[in-house]
Write a structure and sequence with these properties.
Chain lengths: ~220, ~90, ~575, ~90
């Protein structure tokens, strides 16, 4: 079985949702408390949404100092598997510098909770390889999802955009809803695939992403 | 006509809980920084076009009181940063 | 040095009447000291003592008494739910008032050992054309959004309406729903003596002091600054997780949140419900500010605090969990066989009063009187409609009370927890999934101030029925209700009548529908500048969806479908 | 040992849109205030216990850089407000 570790910070609140979605998509899961200070032995690391440390200061800013984050960085550098951060998880990944850019306040200055359509921008990645649809319907729920990037870093996201909003809800640069890192082993995104991973909760589109990840990891294991 | 640049500093009244400050302090202490009494405030810069400093200050006072601060929880302070004569 | 104040003078200032003061003196056999006057005034305030309402509330078909919240069952899952008002704090500071309202009701459900899974909000303001009402409305919505979203409990349904009557006194009622296995529920009763009170949560500051008596006084428009409590959703989220972990420990006997009159009411009520007394050591209470007086520590309404009763020997385990979640921990007292409440500060005895006396506020009786307006309105004929109906329909659809409430609920995270199967806006009730099962919980919250004003009995009955209809419309069977009674000054004979009639109406509708009242809340002294607000009971109802595949939403499904009108 | 009280002022970099500032400016203009260029920043007060001002400043600099500000969006400024000798 593909083994996923779900990192839980004080204030995370989509950890249990992630567990449910990953289990429904055939992953074995374990929670990893943010204090964990050891090598991460997993195939997949999931950083869930929520309000780590209350999102005080800035979303994701305080979480990056939790001991486990050093090991997440190592996991990425040593290419031990795939890493995915959703919503607050994405914010934490940009705060640590593992992904470029930053997520600032929505232009409406308000929290937005609704379902949006996103286009899959690249199918040539572990996270999207097996997605059988161009457009996915996914819930968003955030007040700081407005993706910004410095001019000098724009080069870094060239060909590394994972998803774009069909209708930009928050002012994000270039309608960006999610990006990959240079090595294509980290994905950060604002929409919540784990909230639409089974049909009871919507059309189930979120499952495509998790199933793609699982199949990719299984292929890698079998080779 | 002149343009006056002001800074309005807004801080929480004494005794009012500052959840942001205390969470930040807890993290800093865990990282072993010798840090105490972390308190968050807001800082707003704006310019006012008026004839005299007095008039401009009156306006900023009004804005700070009625719009920028929440008098139930916060207090404010105003500083003049610079003055420019408009053509 | 502190000035000593004559206790009788102080008691008047704190809102006790002379009859109540005499009663205290008589039963103590001496003058109460200053601290004791503070304790009685808080515990005997309307907010804690329910002195104008207890006897009437007892006439409702209540299933569970003396606990933080009641529950109904779907199979072996207990659905714990309760509604609470934060009207007065929100009028002073809408963001924090609403935020701390959410915090309080979540802790009520949490204290039962249930995981909070949904919030509902019932909001009433003055017309939006009034900038003050607009400010309150926007502040309240962002407060609920800011706090509720952060703690990860979805706000799944609610109602929003506007009327002159609420211009200076908005109504902010919030309801929380939680679930637990029935045998995992925790009690707030302490059954044995010599057990320890463990304090877990944020530090105690001077916030909300007087809140308990403040909530029971008419808004005076004076400077109420000292009463404002600030919510810390990060600590609340930590408290949720910590409480659920602690409540699961074998050595934990009871739990109660520190709400109105904070440490005082939680400790005294826990002890009294178990027919015991308690000793508290105030020097151990974690405080946020210097030089806090004993009465301030006892009455503080600082948020995000919980009191547990634990078996000696379990301190370290509870402390470990508290620390894991960045929360303060302290042993602050114990239960005693002797039915007294005794307070100590560094071994000095500060207070020694019979606990039954303190906890059971004397009931007050006010004569009710049917107001003239009731007959006047009843005699009125339906007005003839002269304007064309198309115009009326369009005006209605535009009206803020009827128009789409997306602006409100899109600021709420209504999906976190991934249980929300029917989301707000899709139907008149929302439906939550009980995972591991094909069943669901349907929830709704309703009120109608105008109806209950015109006829408090029929109007209140109608609200219970409306709530039931909302549930039936999504395919659920109503199971139980919680009620929030928002009324004016209970010493007024018209208000008294409205209250009596309303309770009767709710009671009879509940008996007819066989939906028990599992708990509720009373908010008096809701007054506009000149008179009481419309009497506004608000009903929260939960129901069972036996098969999630068989729910129904209100959108038309296909172009050629027929539309039927059923009923009269 | 001394206790140094610092103020850290965090503001948005030039060129980064300040939605809060522009929303406030719009409201103020609608109310006919002669106000321009409204920018919001954060202001954080904290104390550091250290032997010398230099060491204390180094710590605050580190905290401001690594924790209090986000270099993609923000810049910061540090001011020493007061010094107290600890017993
Ligand atoms: N304050 C609120 N919070 C959350 N949801 C709300 C709020 N106000 C209205 N809603 C949602 O909007 C929808 C329509 O509400 P409303 O127009 O009051 O319905 P009703 O037809 O029951 O009067 C419902 O799904 C309701 O739950």
């Amino acid at each position: 079985m593909i083994k996923a570790g779900i990192i839980v910070f004080p204030g995370s609140n989509c950890d249990r949702d992630a567990e449910f979605a990953l289990n429904s998509c055939g992953f074995e899961t374990e929670y990893i408390w943010h204090d964990y200070d050891n090598i991460l032995k997993y195939d997949f690391i999931f950083i869930p949404g929520g309000f780590s440390y209350g999102d005080y200061l800035r979303a994701g800013a305080l979480a990056k100092f939790s001991p486990v984050m050093k090991h997440v960085e190592k996991f990425a550098i040593e290419k031990k598997g795939l890493i995915m951060g959703v919503c607050n998880g994405f914010q934490i990944l940009t705060e640590t510098g593992m992904l470029p850019g930053a997520l600032s306040k929505n232009t409406s200055l308000k929290f937005i909770c609704k379902d949006v359509d996103v286009n899959v921008e690249s199918f040539e990645t572990p996270f999207t390889k097996y997605i059988e649809k161009k457009k996915l319907r996914l819930p968003i729920a955030h007040s700081e999802g407005n993706f910004k990037i410095e001019k000098k870093d724009i080069e870094l996201i060239k060909d590394k955009v994972a998803f774009k909003y069909v209708e930009n809800p928050n002012g994000s640069y270039e309608d960006i809803a999610g990006i990959f890192n240079k090595n294509l082993n980290i994905l950060g995104m604002m929409p919540h695939p784990e909230r639409n991973s089974v049909k009871t909760l919507g059309n189930g589109d979120g499952a495509y992403i998790f199933l793609s990840i699982r199949r990719y990891l299984e292929d890698a294991k079998n080779n | 006509m002149k343009s006056f640049k002001f800074e309005v500093l807004i801080s929480l009244k004494k005794g009012i809980l500052d959840p942001q400050g205390s969470a930040t302090e807890k993290v800093l202490k865990r990282l072993n920084y010798p840090v105490n009494s972390v308190r968050f405030g807001k800082n707003i810069e704006l310019t006012v076009n008026e004839e005299t400093e007095e008039k401009a200050l009156k306006i900023v006072n009004e804005i700070a009181d009625k719009l920028l601060s929440n008098p139930v929880l916060e207090k404010y302070e105003i500083k003049l940063l610079s003055t420019e004569v408009l053509a | 040095m502190q000035k000593t104040i004559n206790p009788e003078v102080l008691s008047t200032q704190l809102g006790l009447n002379s009859y109540e003061y005499k009663l205290i003196k008589e039963r103590l056999g001496r003058e109460p000291n200053e601290l004791e006057v503070y304790l009685f005034s808080a515990q005997w305030s309307e907010h804690c003592g329910y002195k104008h309402s207890k006897t009437l509330i007892k006439t409702l078909p209540i299933t569970i008494e003396d606990e933080n919240a009641g529950y109904v069952k779907i199979d072996d899952t207990a659905i714990v739910f309760k509604v609470e008002s934060h009207n007065h704090p929100s009028a002073v500071e809408p963001y924090q008032g609403a935020a701390t309202g959410i915090g309080g009701i979540v802790r009520d459900v949490l204290a039962m050992g249930a995981r909070p899974i949904a919030l509902l909000d019932s909001l009433r303001f003055g017309p939006l054309t009034d900038p003050k009402s607009k400010h309150l409305f926007e502040g309240v919505v962002s407060g609920i959004s800011g706090y509720g979203n952060s703690i990860g409990v979805p706000t799944v349904a609610g109602e929003t309406s506007f009327d002159e009557t609420y211009s200076t006194n908005p109504l902010i009622n919030v309801m929380c729903v939680g679930t637990a296995k029935e045998d995992e529920l925790t009690s707030s009763k302490s059954a044995q003596h010599n057990k320890l009170f463990a304090y877990v949560g944020s530090k105690t500051g001077r916030d909300g002091i007087h809140g308990a008596s403040f909530a029971s006084k008419e808004l005076s428009g004076e400077d109420e600054r000292s009463s404002v409590q600030v919510g810390d959703p990060f600590s609340e989220k930590n408290l949720i997780e910590a409480t659920l972990e602690i409540a699961a420990l074998q050595g934990v006997l009871a739990c109660q949140d520190m709400g109105a009159a904070g440490f005082l009411s939680s400790s005294s009520e826990m002890a009294d419900k178990g027919n015991l007394g308690c000793i508290l050591n105030l020097e151990n209470v974690p405080v946020r500010e210097e030089n806090m007086q004993p009465w301030e520590i006892m009455l503080s309404e600082s948020q995000e605090r919980m009191l547990f009763l634990i078996e000696p020997g379990w301190e370290a385990e509870v402390e470990r969990i508290a620390k894991k979640y960045f929360l303060d921990f302290a042993i602050v007292g114990k239960t005693t066989y002797e039915k007294k409440m005794k307070l100590y500060m560094n071994e000095k005895e500060l207070c020694n009063v019979p606990i039954k006396l303190l906890v059971n506020a004397p009931q007050l009786y006010v004569k009710s009187e049917v107001p003239g307006y009731f007959y006047v309105h009843r005699a009125r004929k339906y007005p003839e409609i002269t304007t064309n109906s198309r115009r009326i329909l369009l005006d209605l659809l535009k009206h803020p009370n009827i128009t789409n409430k997306k602006w409100v609920f899109e600021q709420y995270d209504y999906k976190v927890g991934t249980n929300t199967v029917i989301t707000p806006g899709k139907a008149d009730a929302s439906v939550l999934w009980i995972k591991g099962n094909h069943k669901g919980i349907a929830v709704t919250i309703d009120g109608n101030g105008l109806y209950t004003f015109l006829d408090p009995y029929e109007g209140s009955r109608n609200i219970v029925y409306e709530a039931a209809r909302n549930l039936i419309a999504v395919g659920a069977k109503p199971l139980g209700i919680t009620d929030n009674m928002n009324f004016g000054n209970p010493e007024n004979s018209t208000v008294r009548w409205q209250f009596e009639q309303s309770i009767k109406g709710i009671g009879s509708a509940c008996r007819e529908l066989e939906t028990p009242v599992t708990g509720g809340n009373v908010s008096f002294y809701n007054e506009s500048e000149t008179e009481a607000i419309y009497p506004t009971p608000v009903i929260g109802m939960v129901g069972e969806v036996s098969d999630l595949k068989k729910t129904m939403t209100m959108d038309f499904k296909f172009p050629s479908d027929k539309v039927y009108l059923v009923g009269k």
